[in-house]
Amino acid sequence: MTAFYVLAILLIASAVFTVTQKSPVYSVVGLLTNFLVLAALYFTLNAEFLGIIQIVVYSGAILMLFVFVIALLSSGIGPFSEGPNRLPRVAIPAVLATLVAFGFLAFGVLHTPLAPTTPHAASLGPVGTANVFGSVADFGVALFTVQLLPFEVTAFILMVAVIGVVLLAGDASPQKTRGSHEKSALKSAGREPIVKAGR
Amino acid sequence: MTVELTNYVMLSAVMFFIGVVGVIVRRNPLIVLMAIELMFNAANLALVAFSRAWVNNAGHIFVFLVVTVAAAEAAIGLAIVVAVFRRAKNVDLDEVAGMHG
Fold first, then answer.
1. Alpha-carbon distance A34 to A43, whole Å?
2. B44 near A133, Cβ under 8 Å?
3. What are the extents of the domains in chain B?
4. Domain count, chain A
5. Cβ <8 Å between A31 and B7
6. Please, what CATH class does the domain formed by B5-88 belong to?
């Protein structure tokens, strides 16, 4: 119980830190803390595979992507390290509307029975032991038998993302590309006789 | 004493709405993307908590899918940021309103 409250306070504090920082680099640090605390919360919820995924994929891959983009864009250009830091006019109405929405959601959560009335804790075990609920083996069996379709959809989403990123952020100047193509064509034309002579 | 499911869901809701405020208020596209990641993770926390309460694996698989979608979203969002920045030399989301109509 105490662990939960400590983790919850850390989670909310790091989320607020992420959103309120002026520089994106500090936001990344806050987000990293947030993800690590969330991984700890997953471990307390018997989801050991998801805790590991949270550390490896989020903290390892996605945050590195953010850091790379910050490093790429902030080089030499002033505003990016700071970013636009004036408070927009929407700030106060946005916070008020969000609080109202949160009130509605909290009302719904607190007045609805969420958990089953008869808890079946038979297959629950300590995190780290094999073949209990949420262990890697349990997750893997579900992923490759009953839930195979979501797994395949995952692969498809990643492929779409790769193609989209190459199209969006690739070299967007066709002039330069054509020039390099011609140059390489010339080079290969010049090399062709040598290859033929070698035969 | 075990922690109730309601506590986890309320924590998830708080985190989600912090992300919402970040998306609405901030004008730096990178911080907006990070706030979106916060919202994804809040939803993940609720899914894992429900999964634990009902002792059902489907929530974990759903979180796996959400993590993949979040990775794809971050990659494509950052690619858009890089492309827009290359063209406009600007990072303020209010200034980059070419498709505003």
1. 14
2. no
3. 5-88
4. 2
5. no
6. mainly alpha
Question: Could you give the ipTM of this predicted complex?
Answer: 0.90
Question: How much is the pTM?
Answer: 0.83
Task: For residue B61, give the nearest of A1, A101, A147 by CB distance.
Answer: A147
Q: In whole angstroms, what is the distance from residue A47 CA to residue B3 CA?
A: 15
Is residue A101 less than 8 Å (CB to CB) from chain B? yes
Q: pLDDT for B17-68, tens place per residue?
A: 999 999 988 888 889 999 999 999 999 999 999 998 888 888 999 999 999 9
Determine, yes or no, domain membership for A140: yes
Enter the tokens of residue A165: 């990123």
Question: Cβ atoms within 10 A of the Cβ of B68, count?
Answer: 21
State whether residue A185 sits within 8 Å of chain B by CB: no
Task: Domain of residue A70: give its range.
Answer: 1-112
Place A111 in a pLDDT band, splitting at 50, 70 and 90: confident
Query: Chain A window 47-76: which residues touch B at a Cβ cutoff of 8 Å?
Result: 47, 49-50, 53-54, 57-58, 61-62, 65-66, 69-70, 72-73
Q: A52 and A98 in one domain? A: yes
Hey, what are B86's tokens?
A: 């290359």
Q: Tell me, yes or no, whether A173 lies in a domain.
A: no
Cα–Cα distance for residue pair A85/A169, rounded to 1 Å: 26
pLDDT digits (tens, 9 = 90+) for A9-35: 999 999 999 999 888 889 999 999 999
